[in-house]
């Protein structure tokens, strides 16, 4: 009888279970014109933070940070979630439909020394500092969805020395629907004890002649869903074999002019 009464009290009159009181309410970051944002606030939807940095300062397991706007900042995630309760950074399209973007000379996203972190729906411009656009290292159970690494148009598309995406000592992680549109020799580099990490990657040539190689070093790392373009025929594609590296086989793939179509 007591158990039944307890269950009935846990369900409100509308019939829907109440939210888990242990689950943090979402935090909002929105620096679009009409948002009224403030880094001195608490990150509510009515008064969101202006910078992603301010929201990450209060991040804890299970927290979702909803991001909208264009940010002239380098974002570093150095806090961990928990199994089943990741810290999530999730992009939300702006009023014009634009994907949230990390831009400017210090752009880029670094995830360092953490576990159980998720990042979704974000464009990351390559920084002018010579470092990777997406730099992941010494981390476990990362999930990245629909991240686009791009070159800033004002740079005139010079060939960059840094890898667009660099992973070192990253395990049990996924980068899903990753788009790389950067003129660099190394599109994706996976080294330094990176293992059991899966990437579904697509990239394409642009007016800047984007291209490069994939370097996969480690145990049971995979890159799938790649389609290589035919030289001289920018609108044609042919499928590449899915790539898998094992402890006995490291792979370096030079794509044919780097032409992979999204």
Question: How much helicity do the residues have?
Answer: under 10%
Structural class: mainly beta
**What portion of the residues fall into strands of 2 or more residues?**
35-45%
Mean pLDDT, as a whole number?
Answer: 76
Are there runs of 5+ residues with pLDDT below 50, and where?
A: 1-19, 205-210, 228-241, 245-262
Principal-axes shape call: globular
Largest sheet: 16 strands, mixed
Order of helices and strands: HEHEEEEEEEEEEEEEEEEE
List how many beta strands DSSP finds.
Answer: 18
Q: Work out the radius of gyration.
A: 21 Å
Number of domains: 2
User: How many helices does DSSP assign?
Assistant: 2
Question: Would you spell out the secondary-structure blueprint of this structure?
Answer:
Elements: H1 2-9, E1 27-30, H2 52-56, E2 64-68, E3 70-71, E4 75-77, E5 87-91, E6 101-102, E7 109-112, E8 115-125, E9 134-150, E10 165-181, E11 183-191, E12 195-203, E13 211-216, E14 221-224, E15 227-230, E16 233-239, E17 243-245, E18 251-254
Parallel strand pairs: 1-2, 2-5, 3-6, 4-7, 5-8, 6-8, 7-9, 8-9, 9-10, 10-11, 10-12, 11-13, 12-14
Antiparallel strand pairs: 13-18, 14-17, 15-16
């Amino acid at each position: 009888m007591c158990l039944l009464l307890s269950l009935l009290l846990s369900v409100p009159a509308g019939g829907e279970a109440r939210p888990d009181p242990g689950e943090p309410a979402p935090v909002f970051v929105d620096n679009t014109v009409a948002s009224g944002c403030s880094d001195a606030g608490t990150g509510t939807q009515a008064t969101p933070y202006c910078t992603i940095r301010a929201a990450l300062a209060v991040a804890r397991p299970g927290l979702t940070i909803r991001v909208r706007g264009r940010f002239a900042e380098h974002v570093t995630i150095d806090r961990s979630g928990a199994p089943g309760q990741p810290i999530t950074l999730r992009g939300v399209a702006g009023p014009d439909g634009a994907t949230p973007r990390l831009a400017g000379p210090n752009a880029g996203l670094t995830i360092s020394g953490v576990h159980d972190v998720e990042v979704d729906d974000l464009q990351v411009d390559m920084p002018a500092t010579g470092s990777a656009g997406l730099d992941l290292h010494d981390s476990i159970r990362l999930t990245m969805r629909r991240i686009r690494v791009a070159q800033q148009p004002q740079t005139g598309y010079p060939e960059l020395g840094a890898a667009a995406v660099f992973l070192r000592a990253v395990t049990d992680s996924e980068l899903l629907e990753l788009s790389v549109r950067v003129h660099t020799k190394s599109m994706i580099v996976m080294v330094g004890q990176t293992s059991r990490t899966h990437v579904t990657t697509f990239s394409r040539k642009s007016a800047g002649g984007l291209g490069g190689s994939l370097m996969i070093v480690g145990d049971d790392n995979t890159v799938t869903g790649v389609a290589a373009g035919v030289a001289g025929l920018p609108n044609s594609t042919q499928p590449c074999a899915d790539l898998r590296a094992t402890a006995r086989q490291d792979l370096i793939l030079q794509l044919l002019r780097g032409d992979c179509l999204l």
